[in-house]
Amino acid sequence: MARAQTRSNKKQTGARYVAYRKKKLYELGREPALTHLAEKRVKKVRGRSDIRKVRALSVDTANLFDPKDKKYSKVKIKSVVENPANRHFIRRNIMTKGTVVDTEKGKAKITSRPGQDGIVNAVLIS
What is the mean pLDDT of residues 71-88? Predict the structure, then answer.
């Protein structure tokens, strides 16, 4: 079944809204990518108006920015330390924007959206 990005069919009280129309194609959504820590795997997706998106299904490296040196470097990701999106993502090693990961150079915070951008950009925090 299609995943629509519309309001819920239930009210806050638990009562149901009366269905007044069908789902529209422009309201269509997709399953989340749930980018995890493993060998790099990406999936190309066609968006509206023929825009191509790259979804990272799994990654093992990050483009790390060091604020002291003001330089970028490509580093291996060891594990996921903290994820503000969902506490259960930590044990599954799922990465989203804002996730704190342990890298070869220390802890870093992810600034990109891996499920949307297809790449992991991070800033060194310690």
Answer: 96
> pLDDT tens for residues 3-53?
888 888 899 999 999 988 888 888 888 899 999 999 999 999 988 888 898
The CATH number of domain 33-124, selected from 3.20.20.80, 3.10.290.70, 1.10.15.40, 3.30.1480.10: 3.10.290.70
End-to-end alpha carbon distance in the chain? 44
For residues 17 and 23, give the distance between their C-alpha atoms in angstroms, rounded to a whole number: 14
Tokens of 72: 């970028």
Q: What is the rounded CA–CA span in Å between residue 55 and residue 117?
A: 6
The residues, any chain, with a CB within 8 Å of residue 70's CB and separated by 6 or more, are none
